[in-house]
Known about the structure:
Helix content is 3%, strand content 48%. The chain has one helix and eight strands, in the order H-E-E-E-E-E-E-E-E. The protein is globular and about 45 Å long.
Amino acid sequence: SVDGLNCETLAKGLPPEKVTGIDASFSGSWFDPTHDGEGWLIEVLPGGVALVYWFSYDGDGNQAWFVGVGTIEGKTITVDEVFIPQGTVFGPGFDPDDVELAPWGSMEFTFDSCGTGTMSYASTKGGEFGAGSLNLERITGLAGLACTESLRR
């Protein structure tokens, strides 16, 4: 379950639980407006961790997806082990047993506010992906979880 979203609490009309720093309200979709067709899904989980997906492209323009679970500290999510799924195809030929999660590198998300931040990455796969940083802007959030600028606490 997403941190802070207790179905029983929400069913009773009570407000979601809040934590300091990054909380469940940061769950949702994010993008960098200068990078068409790319973006991130962030899901803040209980226990100070977040599941992160990055949808991007490889050096040849093919779709590339990256996934990892990171730790939350203050206004930063650090994903030390990012993996790239490989070994299968989409569509009717998809076989889940063929999926391999190959080590890819690391990512770090640092938020300035409820709607902006920076994502930095470093690939261990060599020159194809390299290292760099991108700007974060919110696209969507979870219904019922308005961000309260908890980074200021």
